[in-house]
Structure formats: structure tokens, C-alpha cells
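hi!! sorry for the late reply, been swamped w classes. u asked for the two structures so here they r. pasted raw, havent cleaned anything up. first the sequence of the first protein and right below it the C-alpha cells
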Amino acid sequence: MARPIKRLLVLYVDRDNDVGERLGVPTPIIGRNNILKVATEYILRYPDDSDANAMFGAIQLYDSLTSTLGNDNVELAVVTGTSSEDITADMKILNEVDKVLQVFDAEGFVVVSDGPSDETVVPLIQSRRPVVSIRRIVVKQTRGFEEFAVLARYYLSKLFGEPKYRR
């Protein structure tokens, strides 16, 4: 019978490295206060970006887990890949996960993401420690038709205009 996991790392994965590149902050980012500072700066600059909401969701989850497991048994970190979102991004994420594990020797991960692209690295992360849960943060909004049209135009222009989305 497997023993219960007592030390958890809440790990927000930003595979395309929007957080690191847009703010110019080095990653990994470890610790609630450091991530709160980065998340606040990020949402003030990019209020419509899901990465900020996902970081705040990770903080909320961390707070919830520390209330049940204790402060010494839970840590929070942000790891990032690269804008290419390819094997180099995945290797960077694994390297950063290893750095975080040197600081906090977790027995398992709770992976937080803002979408499927970030979750593609879960099997890689599992090579280091078990992933006990995956939490996807989805921004809920009520939109009228005009807002839908603006968003559709924005994403279609990204789809056809940016090389990484044309694949």
C-alpha cells in the first residue's frame, strides 16, 4: 500500500513563458509572496491575460492546502518554458522543476494551468514526482455579441498572422 503524500508543490506551468518574457523576471519563481508580487504586476499590465488569473488561482489553492496540511508541507512555484512551445520549452520546464525540488523536496505535485497547452508537460513532470491533481483555471465571463466578434477577430488574426499558431 502506498504511503500518503504529505508534502505538496503547487506548480503553475506557463509553457510559452509569457510571464517571464513579458515581465523580464527570471524563473522559476518560488514562494507565495514572490508569486503574488509577479501576479499583481502581470495583471496590472495585462488584465485580459489568463496567466495572471491562473497565478492567482494557484495562490488560492496554495492557501487552501496550507490551511489543511500546514505551511511546512506545501510550497508554491511558477515554472516556464519558451515562446517556441517545443522540446526546448519542455526541457526548460523540467530543468526548472528540478531547481524547485532542490529548494522544496515535494512528494507530489498539484499542477495548475490555464489551458491544454500547459498541460502537455504533465507526463514530463510526473517523471520527477507523482501529479496528484491538475487544476485548470478558466476565466468565466459573460460576453455580448460585440465582444465575441472582437475576440474572434483577435484570435483569427493570431491564428493566421503568428507563425507559432499556423502549425
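now the second protein. again sequence first, C-alpha cells right under
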Amino acid sequence: MHFDAAIPQQNTHSFSAIIMAGGRSSRMGQDKALLQLHGKTMLQHTCDVAIAAGCHKVLISRNAAGYIQDEVANRGPLAGIAAALKQANSEFCLVLPVDMPSLQPADLRPLLNGESCYFKNFTLPCVLPNTLQVQDYLAQVVHDPFLHGRALSIEQLLQWLQARSLTTANPAHFANTNDFATWQCVSKTIPTQRTQQVRHE
């Protein structure tokens, strides 16, 4: 499943967003993607933030019918990224988790500069080049039989890419909400935001 922006974005490079919404949410006790924030699910909220930041398409990695599913099970987030990159038609992909309710479009725009990058102390969100070299690398590690079900990390991918580390002025906006108590505390502090709605194609 993917969403397209209602209007074209003015950017030298083309960016798609990959929303990582396939986690088990075991500590949360319910699906993080379906939590409600100001009348929208976290999945919709994250899509809207990505589009408002400057992405022209949103692809959703989620192991459920109608979404982009992992080709190999139990390989962690890299399997989701590998599957989504194949469906992206942009030069770069902004990879976002679905559990950062404080994240704002302005927080993401420094990443949309046409290079592999991430913010210091946070592996997500990050920007990856959508090249055959990257797709081949991910295919190799995801399908490697010697991993025996082990998951490689996004941090390892960023190291392989020699991605640039940036500094953010708002590190608190990148906090994950992994349990319901944290979610309740953080979500109450977030004002209603008017972000551009995206349409489903």
C-alpha cells in the first residue's frame, strides 16, 4: 500500500517515505499504528507528517494484507525496508517509525538534502539512497541463510552506507512510545496539527 501527495513537492531530489509499521507492539499491548492521535491513527499521522516534510509518496511496511510485506520473516526492519525500496520510484527514501507522535515536518526537512543521513543518537528516521547497489546489499543480507533468523540492524546499514550524522535541535521529538503509559504521557503534550492529508491510490 502507498499514498501519494495531493500536490507536487518542490525539491531538487525526489523522496518517498517508508513508514515502518510492522512491529509486534508487544510492550504497548496493542497495535501502535492504530493508536489515535487527535482523531487520526498514528499511521495516518505519520503519513501526513512525511508528506508535509516534502515526500511525494508514502509506502507502508506492514505485515498485513494490503500493505508491503516482508519477503523473509524474522529479519527485522531491514526486511521491510528491502521490500519497500523495490516499490519506490524516487532517488531517496525517508524511513520513519510509526511510534514517534511528537515528530513534526520541520524536524525531518534537514534530512531531505540528497544524501544518506540520520540524526545523531537516532537511527530512525533516516534517509537512504534508492539505488540498485543498496537494493542488492539488502537482498543479500535479508536472504543470507547463515543468519539463521537473526535480524541485522538499521545501524549496520547506515555504517555500510557511511551515512552522515546530523544534529537536531529537537531531540525530544524523536522519542519512541513503546508502552501505553509513555504513549498517554507524550500524546497529551502534542497540540493539534494541521498537516496535509494524503490520498490513497
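hope this helps!! also noticed smth abt the second:
The mean pLDDT is 87.
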